[in-house]
TrEMBL record:
The keyword Signal applies. The keyword Membrane does not apply. Keywords: Signal. The gene is LOC106179412. InterPro entries: Pan_app (IPR003609), Zn_M74/Hedgehog-like (IPR009045). Residues 1-20 form the signal peptide. This is Uncharacterized protein LOC106179412. Pfam families: PAN_1. Residues 96-173 form the Apple domain. Gene3D superfamilies: Hepatocyte Growth Factor. SUPFAM superfamilies: Hairpin loop containing domain-like, Hedgehog/DD-peptidase.
């Protein structure tokens, strides 16, 4: 009986040490986290609910809340903070930030799938921590005699073999990451390119850029701070709706939904995303436009747009 009580106390204290009331969140109004993976996005939440949800989640070291949209993002890691109205950032104390520990399976290795990186002359511990700290790495394989580490793009079939070690992240720590496919299109604005990657990460899909820099009357396209995009596997209007409600593009952008049949001066359904300033922050609120909803925006431009 004494042993059972001792085990209960040890595990109980350990759990509270990682999350819960013993780990109060640091609140930072007017700040939000950018450029990193999220584990969950939760809508129609109060600020207090957002804070306590992260506080009670051992896998959540930080969170961001939008006070007017009432959206809560639980982050997979602590990263860069930006400034903005209507935002609140939360962060756990360092001692409470539990890392996603890799499950180690000796005598096994992953087969039949894509890798993101192959790294030579590594120790087993270096291989493990490299995957553990990489949001794009859900699993890894290490060869103990060749000292080679493979970071995998997904979790797949395991095989048996001597001198092999397989590592796997817990499912709750695997963050879906999207990609941006530029093809031959060129975007000059680094800030816009970062945002396109944020969109891909947010949707967990591939953003396809159909047009970047091009000649014409559109100044934003001509200098490379605009992109016409679609998202693989997701209807374009759905993308427009999710981005508008998601809060990841509240400032600095002009986002236009082009719909065929409602606009004679464009072909194909796509989103047009232009950044007000090339790299600097303009402070302007993002303008969200659906073409064809009124006579004024049947074939609209930034000067005649109807913002929603």
């Amino acid at each position: 009986m004494r042993v059972k009580i001792l085990v209960f106390l040890v595990f109980g204290l350990g759990a509270n040490y990682v999350y819960g009331q013993n780990c109060p969140m640091e609140r930072r109004p007017g700040r939000y986290y950018v450029l990193g993976p999220d584990t969950r996005t939760i809508y129609s939440m109060t600020e207090e609910q957002c804070r306590t949800t992260c506080q009670n989640d051992a896998k959540c070291p930080a969170a961001t809340y939008h006070t007017t949209k009432r959206v809560c993002w639980l982050h997979a890691n602590v990263r860069t903070l930006a400034h903005g109205a209507n935002w609140v950032a939360f962060m756990k104390p360092e001692r409470c930030q539990e890392r996603c520990q890799m499950e180690r399976t000796p005598g096994r290795y992953y087969v039949l799938g894509p890798d993101t990186r192959t790294i030579y002359s590594m120790t087993e511990e270096q291989c493990r921590t490299t995957c553990q700290n990489d949001a794009k790495c859900p699993a890894a394989t290490y060869h103990t005699t060749k000292r080679v580490c493979w970071l995998h793009a997904n979790v797949r079939t395991l095989a048996h073999g001597a001198n092999w070690v397989a590592f796997t992240k817990p499912e709750g720590c695997r963050v879906q990451r999207g990609e941006v496919s530029y093809g031959r299109s060129v975007v000059n604005s680094q800030a816009l390119k970062i945002t396109l990657q944020d969109i891909a990460n947010f949707l967990g899909a591939t953003v396809v850029v159909h047009s970047g820099v091009r000649q014409g009357a559109d100044y934003y396209h001509s200098v490379g701070q605009a992109a016409d995009i679609t998202v693989s596997g997701i209807d374009t209007k759905t993308v427009w709706d999710r981005l508008k409600s998601g809060g990841i593009m509240d400032n600095e952008y002009f986002v236009m939904y082009h719909a065929p049949g409602q606009r004679s001066c464009s072909s194909g359904t796509h989103l047009h995303i232009a950044r007000w300033e090339m790299e600097n922050m303009s402070g302007r609120t993002t303008c969200w436009v659906i073409e064809g909803t009124t006579p004024e925006n049947t074939c609209t431009s930034m000067s005649t747009s109807i913002c929603h």
